Amino acid sequence: MGFPNLLWGNVFGGGWLSVLTTLLDIAVISFILYKLIMLVKGTRAWQILWGLALFFLLIFVSDKLQLYTLNWLLRTVLPLGPVAIVILFYPELRHALEEMGRLGFWGRGFSFLGKEEMATMIDEVVRLATRLSRSKVGALIVIERETGLDNIVATGTRLDAVVSQDLLHTVFFPGSPLHDGAAVIRSNRVLAVGCTLPLSDSPHISSMIHTRHKAAVGVTEQSDAVVVVVSEETGTISLAVEGRLERGLDADALRERLQKLLIPQERATGAGYRMLFRRHSAQQERQKPAAEQAAGSPDAAAQETRTGAGPV
Q1: CA 226/CA 141 separation, integer angstroms
Q2: How confident is the model at residue 195 (pLDDT cuts 50, 70, 90)?
């Protein structure tokens, strides 16, 4: 008796309870497989999976075409498969087990921040990026989503402070001992600064891309983080997400992208959030300290121009 007939008999031979448990079993397995596929999609593990699929396809085709030598060679290598899989997928297996232990893997959203807190965090990051872009000061701002970045946080200096453009501007100010590293944000707090990010080794990245941008792409290849990059050479604002780099963003475009990426879609109501951002920005402008408003004086402008000097 074949497996389909055996399954059919077991399902409908035990009544409706057996049918429900079978459907539940299929649903759970499908959900887990979907989560695992989404976990490795876009990473090197995804390419390895395609290579394994091609390997098994070659075994099937060589058997049907009676290519006995090729089929024998492939089947000889096949028993080494379990050991090879452990070696090839060691980083991905470890990452998958870590993710399965997180609530985010099972469907939790980006964070439990309310609308106002999320709007404040995004607005502070956008204003900081715009400010640094004008003065051509380089910056790397990593915003954590569901994938934990504790291993990256461990490479920097712990801060655990509320996100503030003034605080981060001080960190990235030229001459600061931490300005070359990345700042990691979780929810609405700066976890650490001066962090070291893994560089991307993707062959699709142009050789013209500098180290700061390669680091931004690298961390998004290994996690679902969102990274805001400011070039110290051109002042260009870029956004790295899922191993891709979006360049040449202005304040409005950056705010819109961060809103879509960081705010769960079921909670995002486009017009409502745009109104919220406008109201929040207006409040920030009204509450801006007199010292910051004085930054528009000639002396302050000259000092900002000097600190932002660099190769173009």
Answers
A1: 8
A2: very high
Main-chain dihedrals φ then ψ at residue 66, nearest 5 degrees: 60, 40
How many other CB atoms are there within 10 angstroms of residue 55's CB atom?
Answer: 13
| Integer Cα distance of 280 and 255 in angstroms | 13
What H or E segment, with its residue span, contains residue 16? helix 16-40
Please say if the pLDDT value at position 303 is more than 60: no
Instruction: Tell me which residue of 47, 149, 145 sits closest to 95, measured CA to CA.
Output: 149
Residue with tokens 């074949």: 2
Q: Which two tokens stand for residue 228?
A: 């805001």
With H, G, I as helix, E, B as strand and everything else as coil, classify residue 304. Answer: helix
Q: Please give the DSSP secondary-structure letter assigned to residue 198.
A: P
Structure tokens of 166? 């003034």
State the CB neighbour count (10 A cutoff) for residue 187: 16
Q: Which string of b and e fits 115-129 if b means at least 16 CB within 10 Å?
A: eeebbbbbbbbbbbb
Number of other CB atoms surrounding residue 3 within 10 Å: 7
Second-level CATH architecture of 115-307: 3-Layer(aba) Sandwich (3.40)
- Which among 197, 193, 146 is positioned nearest to 167, based on CA atoms? 193
- Is 142 buried (19+), middle (13-18) or exposed (0-12) by CB count in 10 A? buried
The Cα-based distances of 157 to 118, 187, 228 in angstroms read 24, 18, 19
Bridge partners of residue 129, in order along the sequence: none
Query: Per DSSP, what are the bridge partners of residue 238?
Result: 229
pTM of the predicted model, to two decimals? Answer: 0.56
Find how far residue 234's CA is from the centre of its chain: 24
Q: What is the pLDDT of residue 43?
A: 58
User: Can you read off the two tokens belonging to residue 68?
Assistant: 């006995």
